[in-house]
Design brief:
alpha/beta; two-stranded antiparallel sheet; 54% helix
Length: 303
């Protein structure tokens, strides 16, 4: 699952304009989840129709089948690979398969116990596809609902992480280009886009002058996450660019002589030039139209 280039562009645009970027990630999560749900329902219909013995075994045969990827097997069992990693300290295919089957049997037992104890429950999930419909009983319906819930949680965690890792680097490049900083004054040589990877390799970004490198850290965090700033500050960074910084975070940076940029502040991105001035890096002050200039810059970066 990857973030589209357009979503990354929108995130960077919103951050520089002091707007909240999270709606872009939420929209992407919604789109990915809804597409998964539709595809999953189609698979359920086909699997149910092709099952000779209409018992819960049809689900296990179709959705815990070893021919599927380990990611699919884990999700279909009601787990995700991160949980399996935390539980078993490994996500090898064999461990994922074994953990998934064990969890599914436990989940089904719990559902059966719930159904037997809650006699008033009468739930039937009907899925129609091209004029053909299948009905799922209470147990089957709850398994489907649980699988969808796990998938959305997995998407949410993965896409938020991916957004941060990718957008942060493009944000730094965009700031440099806004202020017309020459390529010789920043180091992004390890920042190579690889379209075969879900996430670009995470690297440090440096401003540089006269052979001296100044480490830049970027964190698109929320206001309720001050410990993230503490961790970044502890890494001996020279520049700290964030979405939101508390007054305490700003004071910490000032005391440690770290140049900070809080993009959610009004015209917050303009503090970037203070870092350029501090390190004697030539730049051209920016007073242009962000709506016009930033999209053009991002188009150049994404070529």
């Amino acid at each position: 699952m990857t973030l589209t280039d357009q979503v990354i562009k929108s995130i960077v645009m919103r951050v520089i304009k002091s707007q909240d970027y999270r709606i872009e990630v939420v929209n992407l999560i919604n789109a990915e989840f809804l597409q998964f749900a539709i595809d999953f329902f189609k698979q359920v219909v086909n699997a149910k129709l092709n099952s000779e013995d209409i018992t819960i075994e049809w689900y296990k045969k179709a959705f815990l089948n070893k021919s599927l990827s380990s990611d699919e097997i884990a999700i279909n069992s009601g787990l995700n690979k991160k949980t399996i990693s935390n539980m078993y300290r490994s996500t090898t295919r064999q461990i994922v398969i074994e953990a998934s089957k064990e969890h599914f049997d436990s989940l089904y037992s719990n559902i059966q116990a719930l159904v037997e104890n809650e006699h008033d429950i009468d739930l039937t999930l009907t899925i129609k596809l091209k004029g053909v419909s299948v009905d799922l009983n209470v147990s089957e319906s709850l398994i489907i609902i649980n699988t969808l819930a796990v998938k959305r949680a997995a998407l949410r965690g993965g896409l938020w992480s991916t957004a941060g890792k990718r957008a942060e680097k493009y944000l730094m490049l965009t700031l440099c280009k806004l202020y017309k900083v020459g390529k010789e004054y920043y180091n992004a040589e390890h920042f190579v886009r690889n379209n075969n990877l879900d996430v670009d390799r995470e690297i440090d970004f440096y401003l540089q002058n006269n052979g001296v490198k100044y480490k830049c850290e970027v964190k698109l965090m929320g206001q309720g996450n001050p410990e993230s700033a503490d961790a970044i500050i502890a890494r001996s960074s020279d520049v700290f660019v964030a979405d939101t910084l508390s007054l305490q975070n700003k004071n910490q940076c000032d005391n440690l002589d770290i140049c900070w940029v809080a993009c959610r502040d009004e015209n917050g991105y303009k503090r970037f030039k203070l870092a350029l001035e501090k390190f004697n890096i030539p730049y051209t002050d920016y007073n242009g139209d962000l709506d016009h200039d930033v999209p053009q810059i991002l188009d150049e970066i994404f070529v």
